[in-house]
Amino acid sequence: MSTKNSPETSARQAPRVRKSPAERHAEIREAAAVVALEEGLAAITLRRVARQLGVASGLVAHYEPRVEDFVAATFARIAAADRTEVEQAMAGLDDVALRLRAVLASSLDSERLPVTAVWVEAWGLGRRNEALAAAVREEMDSWQELLRNVIRDGVRAGVYSAPDPAAVAWQVLGMIDGLNAQALVRWEGVPDRREHFLSAVEHLLGVS
């Protein structure tokens, strides 16, 4: 009688690969992001994320002992990934006007609505979660810096006329947030809102 194990037996006896703490933590953070995008930041609990991963809630608690910080980190992860996609949309464009249009068009893309919902919820929850509020402020600063730099490059190139690129960047960011929030409830008060928005921004920048 052969003493060799069958493929099925070998598979059953194969040792489980133990994930490193960094890998496990990254897996937990990614699962939380999925929950937030599908169900909202308020849905992030130790039990809900554990169920998403198919692990015990105690394991999640080991890596994320404070839910407030966990929610803040989840928001930061989602927002940073979204901003990176927008930055990539303008990468490689030499024309500064095209770079700005790429940023603005990407910002209003309807596929970003799940991210917009996370932003809107974060503004509300941030009233009672200081860690989340700090993460929101930091990400808003990053967006303002991105817009300011593009506008400043346009001013230096003689394409735009804006004495204070930082102030214009805040105005543009406010318009982006407002239009995206309106899109969440499918309000179509103005047809072709993207083109109207782009025209309004160009007016702010002195583009004739």
TrEMBL record:
Gene3D superfamilies: Tetracycline Repressor, domain 2. This is DNA-binding transcriptional regulator, AcrR family. InterPro entries: BetI_C, Homeodomain-like_sf, HTH-type_TetR-like_transc_reg, Tet_transcr_reg_TetR-rel_C_sf. The keyword DNA-binding applies. PANTHER family: HTH-TYPE TRANSCRIPTIONAL REGULATOR BETI, HTH-TYPE TRANSCRIPTIONAL REGULATOR RUTR. Keywords: DNA-binding, Transcription, Transcription regulation. Residues 1-12 have a biased composition (Polar residues). Residues 1-23 are annotated as: Disordered. It comes from the Bacteria. One of its GO terms (molecular function) is DNA-binding transcription factor activity. Residues 99-193 form the BetI-type transcriptional repressor C-terminal domain.
